[in-house]
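Hey, sorry to bother you again with one of my protein questions. I've been staring at a protein lately and its backbone has me curious. I owe you a coffee for this, so here goes:
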Amino acid sequence: MTARTVLITGGNRGIGYSLAEEFISQGHRVAVTARSGKGPEGSLTVIADVTDGESLDRAFEQVEAQLGPVEVLVANAGITKDTLILRMSDEDFDSVVDTNLGGAFKVVKRAAKGMLKAKFGRIILISSVVGLYGSAGQVNYSSSKSALVGMARSLTRELGSRGITANVVAPGFIETDMTAALPEEQQAQYKANIPAGRFAAPSEVAKVVAWLAGDDAGYISGAVIPVDGGLGMGH
């Protein structure tokens, strides 16, 4: 394993926090972006809003000064504003797409400069099973997450010859505070539709992402890797 400088957006909670913990445990230099809060011990937290290019520039400058050029980027930051389409406002749609898709574009564009110079990079976009499987009440969220597949594959065609890979990880239901707050009956209903019969631990997503960032995955690019217990069946 080669120790790398890793930047994870939205690394102050949930899957992003677990991602940071995993990379730290493997000996990487880890920074996380957050609008509030901070990442796990051993990480550098930089305050940034992924929809704001100027704040991202400042965050990258801080990371580069303290940890070195970003070699591994995990675009994880995202939001939801779920409701049925006839109740969904333009703002509900635009804000989710601006954060989940536009934010990924802005952070990838900034990271790509250093990666092209180094002729090395790992770009990992965190999507969702609903990006390709679909979900009622999530037209905005599923659209933004589906679009990340096209982004990764276009990046692969643009940057692949320069030692840069771009892949998508699509988690399913994960054990988080959000799923823990669901009524037991609803949790059981969700689990009944998952062939594995359970939710994933955040660490199970983190280990897949860390592997994609590692030396052994250098010939994988433009791929969508589901971590969903079989829910999406590779969609």
